[in-house]
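Structure ticket #2291
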Amino acid sequence: MSRAFVKEADGVEAIENLPERAASTHPNFVTAEGLATIEAELEKAHREHAQAQAANDRATLARAARNLRYWTSRRTTAQVIAPPIAGGAVQFGSTVTIERDDGRRQTFRIVGEDEADPAHGTLSHVAPLARALFGKAVGDVVQAGQSEAEIVEVR
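Resolution: structure written out below.
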């Protein structure tokens, strides 16, 4: 087929069809720190939106508006969960140390989805490992990926 008969989205159409950022269907539980992060991202989105409007930059404006909608939604649905009591059963906000079958120890704090970063020791409350840990205590064994792990500390 000739290229003359193929309709391609031009720059304006591509901007208008920018997909929304996917929001989780899980409850938006956050720590106090997580709420502060959401509020900072919301302020940043407001600034970027205003700057894009002032510059009449349609592509940046579309991205900023999308981020503004996302962070506004996340702020609206945020449910701050009080810190847990140390040493009890694992719950949202707990810091848990596990020891894997191969002897590796890992420590994670269970937090909200927007604040989770496993490489930096935070784990989303909806992650499979976090779900396996909920309600467990020191000495309990949980499935951690392809192997098992023992809970050695809960704070």
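Closing remark: The first helix runs from residue 11 to 16.
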